[in-house]
Amino acid sequence: MIAVGDLTAVKQALRAQRIETPSWAYANSGTRFKVFPQPGVPRTPEEKIADAATVHRFTGVAPSVALHIPWDKVDDYGALTAFARDLGIEIGAINTNVFQDEDYKLGSVTNPDAGIRRKATDHLLEAISIMDATGSRDLKLWFSDGINYPGQDDIRDRQDRLAVALKETYDRLGDHQRMLLEYKLFEPAFYATDVPDWGTSYAHCIELGEKATVCIDTGHHAPGTNIEFIVAFLLRAGKLGAFDFNSRFYADDDLMVGAADPFQLFRIMYEIVRGDALDPAYGIAFMLDQCHNIEAKIPAIIRSVMNVQEATAKALLVDRDALRTAQQAGDVLAANAVLMDAYNTDVRPLLAELREDSGLDPDPVAAYHRSGYQEKIVAERAGGTQAGWGA
Ligand code: PSV
Ligand code: MN
Ligand code: MN
C-alpha cells in the first residue's frame, strides 16, 4: 500500500511530466505494401500542429510537437512557431532527413562521394537554422547509412566520415541547442549500419562533447535487448538525451508505446525515476515516434500518451526504501516483489483523479470522441498528406 504523503509527490511528478508527439504520426502512413489513407488527416504542417495541440488539450502533458524536415518544410518558421504558440504548444525537436534522396543510395554523411557528404551535412546545418527560428533545443539525427554486403565499403572509413560530419554539425549548435544521436540496428541497411547501437552513438557523443547525447528509440534493438540496462548506463554517464517511444513485436514496428510490452515500458520508466530524470528540468526529451497505419490517429496518440503516464505512475509507486532494503539484504524474492507490487497496481483511477484536478476530462479518448474535432477535420480536410515513408 502507498502512504498518502507519498501520493502527493507521485501526483506532482505526474503533473510535471512532458511527452512530445511527432508531426508525422498525424499523417497517413503504411508499410512498404500499402498506405491506407484516413479521412481528415492533415495536409499541411499547420494542420499537424493543430492535431498535436488537440492531443495536448485532452491530455495536458503533450505541449510540444517534433517536426521533420523536409516533410514539414515551410517558408517562415517564425510564423509557424507563432501559429503553434497560438494553439498552446511549442515546436520541439527538429528531425533531419538524409534518407529520401536518390543521392543517398550508398549513404549520406558516410557516402564514399565527398559531394554527397557535403549535401547531407548541409541539410543538417540547415536544420539548425530552422531551430534558431523555432526556438527548438534539440536536433535529432537518425542516419539510414550502412552497407548491404561485406566488402561493399570500408566500415572504418565510414566511421571517420560520420565523425567529420557530426563534428561540423556539432560546432554549429548554439549555446542552448543539443544534438540527439539516434541508433538503429538494421533497416534499411541489412549488413552493417553505421550507427547500429547505443555504444556507437555514445562513443561519438563522448568525442563530440556535452551537447551531444544518445536518443533511445525503443523499437531499434535486437529482440530480447535489455533496454532498461541501456537507460541505467547512459543516465549514469550523463549521456541519455531522449527517447523515441513506440512498441515492437518484430522489427521497427512503430506501434503504440506500451502496447506490445507494458512491463518493459515500466522497467524503463523505473530507471528514469531511479535516476531522478523524469522532471523536464533534467533535460530528457520523452518523445513518441510512431505510425498509426490502421488505427485512428489522434485517439491512438492520446492513448499512447496515457500509456506512458500509466507506466510512469507505476514506476513512481515503487517503494524505493523497501526495494533498497531487500536488495541490501540480498533478498531476491522480496526485492522482485516490491517492483511487481508497483507494476501490478491499477493506476488508472489515480490518473483520472489527477486529470480532474487539472480541469481535464478523466477519460481523454472518450472526451476526444465527444468533442466533434474528428468530424470537423473530416469535413474540412480533403486529401491528407503522407507521413513520408511507405510511398
Ligand atoms: C526510421 O527508423 C525512423 O523511424 C527513426 O526512428 C527516426 O527517428 C524516424 O524514422 C524519423 O526520421
Ligand atoms: Mn526514431
Ligand atoms: Mn524507427
TrEMBL record:
It comes from Amycolatopsis mongoliensis. The keyword Nucleus does not apply. Coiled coil: none annotated. Pfam families: RhaA. GO terms for biological process: L-lyxose metabolic process; rhamnose catabolic process. Its EC number is 5.3.1.14. Signal peptide: none annotated. This is L-rhamnose isomerase. It is an enzyme of class 5 (isomerase). GO terms for molecular function: L-rhamnose isomerase activity; manganese ion binding. The gene is rhaI. It comes from the Bacteria. The lineage of its organism: Bacteria, Bacillati, Actinomycetota, Actinomycetes, Pseudonocardiales. Keywords: Cytoplasm, Isomerase, Manganese, Metal-binding, Rhamnose metabolism.
